[in-house]
């Protein structure tokens, strides 16, 4: 795994309190592999990992605690004949809002060459394969806030603090930047290289 195992061991010590069971390791590896497939840089991969790490509390939760209670996006929306759905946080980015579920449905459907309906089946945002695609699609294309990875990375730039605007304004930006730095250090110290 081209030194990924060594990098994961370092992550276990620096970010996961010395233990990285499969339910935390698997999403980390999926995000890294999808980043490689897209030929993203180590800082971009590190920031994507930091975002998932923060949004899911170290991948302990694949769904928002409280399911959006007392938030506009947590209000059930009538889909058809008594069927209602809420578009609260799910998956690695804790995807919210009907509009984001609809946009991601379109992109995932194109990626897979078949319909993936997150609008009528929002729980699909928690499917691991889709969840790692959602984090990358949203961050590369600027689908969450209009800001994207290219606004903060590349051409010698690596702005982990500013990159929080890709997902959710500036809340906890410094904390998440700290996580990204630790992920980057683990990848580099572990000898991990982005596949060409």
Which keywords apply here?
7 helices; two-stranded antiparallel sheet; 47% helix; single chain; mainly alpha; 196 residues
Task: Describe the protein's architecture and organization.
This protein is mainly alpha-helical and 196 residues long. 47% of the residues lie in helices and 6% in strands. The chain has seven helices and four strands, in the order αααββααββαα. The strands form two sheets. Strands 1-2 form a two-stranded antiparallel sheet. A hairpin with a 2-residue loop joins strand 3 (153-154) and strand 4 (157-158). Helix 1 runs antiparallel to helix 7, helix 2 crosses helix 5 (128-141) and helix 3 crosses helix 7. The longest helix is centred in the C-terminal third of the chain and has 17 residues, at 173-189. The relative contact order is 0.19. The model has no long low-confidence stretch (mean pLDDT 93).
Task: Annotate the secondary structure layout.
Layout: H1 4-15, H2 22-37, H3 42-55, E1 77-80, E2 83-85, H4 98-112, H5 128-141, E3 153-154, E4 157-158, H6 165-168, H7 173-189
Helix pairs in contact: 1-7, 2-3, 2-5, 3-7
């Amino acid at each position: 795994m081209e030194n990924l195992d060594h990098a994961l061991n370092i992550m276990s010590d620096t970010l996961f309190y010395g233990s990285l069971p499969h339910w935390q390791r698997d999403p980390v590896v999926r995000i890294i592999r999808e980043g490689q497939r897209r030929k993203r840089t180590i800082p971009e991969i590190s920031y994507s990992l930091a975002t998932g790490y923060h949004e899911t509390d170290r991948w302990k939760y694949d769904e928002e605690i409280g399911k959006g209670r007392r938030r506009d996006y947590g209000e059930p929306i009538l889909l058809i004949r008594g069927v209602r759905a809420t578009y609260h946080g799910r998956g690695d980015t804790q995807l919210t809002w009907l509009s984001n579920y609809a946009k991601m449905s379109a992109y995932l459907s194109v990626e897979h060459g078949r319909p993936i309906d997150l609008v009528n089946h929002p729980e699909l945002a928690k499917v691991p394969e889709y969840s790692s695609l959602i984090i990358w699609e949203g961050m590369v294309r600027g689908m969450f806030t209009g800001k994207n990875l290219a606004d903060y990375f590349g051409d010698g730039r690596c702005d982990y603090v500013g990159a929080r605007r890709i997902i959710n304004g500036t809340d906890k930006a410094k904390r998440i930047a700290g996580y990204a730095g630790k992920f980057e250090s683990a990848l580099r110290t572990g000898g991990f290289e982005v596949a060409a």
